[in-house]
């Protein structure tokens, strides 16, 4: 491959940013008098924030499609139980009531759930664009911190209850569109690659190939390789040294910012160029090996399946979310890939199905094993097994 021009700019500091100053301005000010309506899973159906005067209050915004939100529930439940005399935790769910009812059937929750489905009436008090989003209010009614439950520790809870300054890291829960690393274009024939260090104040962002530009911000070497090689995330990646330093996240050289700008390149050419760049400078290298590993095997329960066959003139369309997969004229490989992503285990398709199907397959993050019941409804099942699988092996000196 011939480049007209290559410009390499390495290790330029990124500028810190906070994407919604509105939220941070609320810290240190009295919390608004909020009336909580449509309260589920509590002894009362409604209450006001002032009803908990003399207690510290944590308001946690979440949704059923937010895995980090759900993963934070055990510690929120523990804190509510351990500090019930001094603390009230209120969760606000941004889902329809029917979905929350189903969630509570699948996963018992020892916290109240306030429905926020009426034009996001509670978001106006604490503006944000993404969840989790967690508000700390002290016993005097002052907003002490705005963070996410995943960043909260027992130390922060004790600070809140004691009336001390809460040292939880600020986060507004917004993933802002970050500026390009390279900046303005330098002509139609230039090829530029820029590398920048990890920025503790920025989010982890991947911008797919568009207009000759491919961008990674605050991403680990392993994730960058998985994207460039179009390899399943986590499930088919292994480290040659399981204790490798670069398996971590947070040190300045464990994740980087990396961008290519090549207006004449295709996506494949841009990916190849970055891989060539990484082969010369990255502390993590890759190789591919076939190994026998534990997998889940997708098979039919009988000779027939209970899925609608697509018509020959149906336009293929597949969309996925944390709440399921919708297929229009999609192959069974799309369902297998969705299951692999959400179960975090290689899925081997041994159904023998080659037709295209229309399928609406629900997913419940709070109860992953419910997928077995859903699969049975369409005549499929998953079983444990061992198979030889081509793996991406990550190699590092330390």
Task: Report on the architecture of this protein.
This protein folds into 3 domains: 6-14 and 181-282, no CATH class; 21-162, Glutaredoxin; 291-395, no CATH class. The two termini are 32 Å apart. Strands 3-7-6-5-8-9 form a 6-stranded mixed beta sheet, covered by helices on one side. The chain has 8 helices and 21 strands. It is α+β, with helices and mostly antiparallel strands.
| pLDDT averaged over residues | 87
Order of helices and strands: EHEEEEHEHEEEHEEEHEEHEEEEHEEHE
| CATH topology-level name of the largest domain | Glutaredoxin
**How would a textbook summarize the main sheet?**
6 strands, mixed
Structurally, the number of domains stands at: 3
Could you give the distance between the termini? 32 Å
CATH architecture annotation of the largest domain: 3-Layer(aba) Sandwich
- Class inferred from helices and paired strands: alpha+beta
Q: Number of DSSP strands? A: 21
Under CATH at level 1, the class of the largest domain stands as Alpha Beta
Shape: globular
CATH superfamily of the largest domain: Glutaredoxin
For the largest sheet, list the strands in their spatial order: 3-7-6-5-8-9
List the total number of helices.
8
Low-confidence stretches: 1-22, 173-177
What helical percentage do the residues reach? Answer: 10-25%
**Overall radius of gyration:** 24 Å
Beta-strand content bin: 25-35%
